[in-house]
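tool=predict chain=A
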Amino acid sequence: MSTIEKKQLAIYTENYVYGGLERALFDLVNNVDRKKFEITLLYNYNPEFETRLNRSIRQPVRRKSIPIFTVVPYVMRLERRGFLAAVKIPCRAILIGLGYLFFICNVLLLRKKFSEFRIDTLYIINGGYPGGGSCLAAVIAGRQRRVPRIVLSVLSYPFPRKLGVLEKFFDSLISGFVDVIVTNSAAAKGGMAELRDFPPSKLRVVYTGVREDRRIDLKAVAAIRGRYGIAPSTKIIGMVGAFEPYKGHVYLLEAIPLIKKKFPAVKFVLVGEGRIKSEVEALARSRGLFTDVIFTGHCPEDKMIDIVGTFDIFVLPSLHEGLPYVISEAMSLGKPVVATKVGGIPEQINNGVSGILVPPQDSEELANAIIYLLTNEEKAKGMGLKAQKKVRDNFTIKSMVSSMEELL
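tool=predict ok
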């Protein structure tokens, strides 16, 4: 009896911080049909990523870290430190120039690495677009090595071009060399066509998914409330997200005084780490909100369900998004969500049905939406149940993996 030969799938990514990219990568590697695919995982050298990889990958996979040429750690360090604009601007310009030189170096490096084993499909997972420079270099290197099929994922809404003709040239190269570009929202697909001129014929949408079998552990919820001194009857407004400017923490802080005028006992729980966390904490302290706001710090993925389970309302006031995992996660637990109308979020939330959408950078509308749900508890509960159903119908790991297998 003949056996079907497995497709040799090489997955490449460049990653520095925990987020949606890793979630998508781990879920795919753990759930793809191993009778059809044999996986080789390639990635930039990053000890923290290695640790998370060891903890999260449950299926056997051949893997190798690659010491790529990158300026990203230096850019991140530059942004974190309080240098004056007179220092930051020229340093940033130098790093951008080096980035283009390193791009060429990475094409040569990856071309050599890709020649070391057979590849039927090269799948490149990019956090955004243009995103990781080596991810785009991998597209060119893969085509130079005559890889039969190249698929590129874009997991956030793309940024407009800043360098005009130069970026347009690179986009045209990527467009010509890639077979399929997968976005995780229709909004991102439209952005790739409108902002970066990618042909719609090469663009596909595959929603990232979450587990649908998770349930709230009431004992864990009680323990978390006890840890932070929150009474069982106290309402909690929660947010999960990296402390980065685009996540909009500042707008939630601005909304808190408006909310507390009507609901003085409510508490706010902010989960995550990031480069502006100390600034947000200082802002909360300066406005007399520090006793109302709890900063939990980093929460491991396996504990995230428990802490989101304590929330009465989930909030995400982002300025820029793709298709946030945290929203799908909260919806899967039946939590009503208030979020901004950006990126793919309107594809997750039907406004007024499975949650409430508000304009970005509008603290007053954000406060009004939260007050509405606190005032109308039955309505909030109904939204949560409809949100849960929408996740089960549209945003599951099973549907994500099935769709990706067809494209790989």
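Residues 150 and 179 are 5 Å apart (CA to CA). The longest helix spans residues 85-114.
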